Amino acid sequence: MRLDKFLKVSRIIKRRSVAKEIADKDRIQINGKTAKSSTQVKVGDELEIRFGNKTMIAKIEDLRDTTKKDEAKELYSIIEEKYNS
């Protein structure tokens, strides 16, 4: 599954266009490597996403094409959240 689609389906980022924009600005890493929006993700990958002053590290637990809002959190687990000052 493409990175931008996973971020939208998991509701980590609400819109796919925003996910694509963030990835293409080198603000997302998968397993320590900078990722583009078209990068393929798989179960077990670790994502590091930098949003402004917050950095989130999450592990992909499951991949689905669609989810309901309450099921979206099952697709990933948050390992760490840091706030940069």
UniProtKB/TrEMBL annotation:
Highest taxon in the source lineage: Bacteria
Q: Which Gene3D superfamilies match?
A: RNA-binding S4 domain (3.10.290.10)
Q: Name one GO biological process term.
A: rescue of stalled ribosome
Q: Does the keyword Protein biosynthesis apply?
A: yes
Q: Where is the RNA-binding S4 domain?
A: 1-61
Q: Which Pfam families match?
A: S4 (PF01479)
Query: Which first-to-last residue range defines the signal peptide?
Result: none
* Family recorded in the similarity comment: Belongs to the RqcP family.
The protein's job, in short, is: Key component of the ribosome quality control system (RQC), a ribosome-associated complex that mediates the extraction of incompletely synthesized nascent chains from stalled ribosomes and their subsequent degradation. RqcH recruits Ala-charged tRNA, and with RqcP directs the elongation of stalled nascent chains on 50S ribosomal subunits, leading to non-templated C-terminal alanine extensions (Ala tail). The Ala tail promotes nascent chain degradation. RqcP is associated with the translocation-like movement of the peptidyl-tRNA from the A-site into the P-site.
Q: How does it assemble?
A: Associates with stalled 50S ribosomal subunits. Binds to RqcH, 23S rRNA and the P-site tRNA. Does not require RqcH for association with 50S subunits.
UniProt cross-references to HAMAP family, sorted A to Z:
RqcP (MF_00871)
Q: What is this protein called?
A: RQC P-site tRNA stabilizing factor
Can you name the source organism? Marinilactibacillus piezotolerans
Gene name in the database record: rqcP
